[in-house]
Design goal:
single chain; 175 residues; mainly alpha; three-stranded antiparallel β-sheet; 7 helices
Length: 175
């Protein structure tokens, strides 16, 4: 089972850390998604690699067990909103941006519950955001399609009041 004090990493670093093209791409992703460090990008990349590795293995093997595992993988990925069509070939098209778009931090910003991605991250870590009745304090939480509609401010949060100065107001058309 392993030593509980020795937590394994859930990602792997790039093989060559000083590639200019990769560094520039990561810098753009950091800014666009409001990530705190490159480790979050590497975690998303490891997640996409594991999904594609599973899909490649299941495509190669044809038996009843692989069909069950393939159905479970496809159900998980459609539940997360990462794929639209249920085929193992579509799993290979999942990219880092697809995973980063499903993070709670990004969805809070896209639902206009915050003015910026950084502010969304801060609201989540300070327990101002709930999904249903459950407080989530991890900005990297992957939101399922079903949970997406239940994202709101916590009842006890000062952001829950409509007149809070930091709360964004819906845009109105001016003619």
């Amino acid at each position: 089972m392993g030593d509980p004090r020795r937590i394994k990493k859930k990602f792997s670093k790039p093989s060559h850390l000083w590639q200019k093209a990769r560094i520039d791409e990561e810098r753009v992703l950091l800014k666009e998604y409001g990530l705190s460090n490159k480790r979050e990008i590497w975690k998303a990349a490891s997640l996409t690699r594991s999904f594609s590795k599973q899909a490649k293995r299941l495509i190669a093997i044809k038996n009843s067990q692989s069909e069950k595992e393939g159905a479970q993988l496809l159900d998980k990925l459609t539940g997360l909103g990462l794929i639209k069509e249920k085929s193992l070939e579509s799993v290979l098209d999942i990219g880092i941006k697809n995973v980063l778009d499903r993070r709670l931090q990004t969805i809070v910003f896209k639902k206009k519950l915050s003015r910026s991605v950084k502010q969304a991250r801060q609201a989540i870590t300070h327990a101002h955001i709930t999904i249903g009745s459950k407080k989530i304090t991890s900005p990297s939480y992957l939101v399922t399609v079903q949970e997406e509609g239940a994202i709101s401010f916590s009842e006890k949060s000062p952001f829950a009041k409509q007149d809070h100065p930091e709360r964004t107001l819906p845009e109105t058309k001016q003619t």
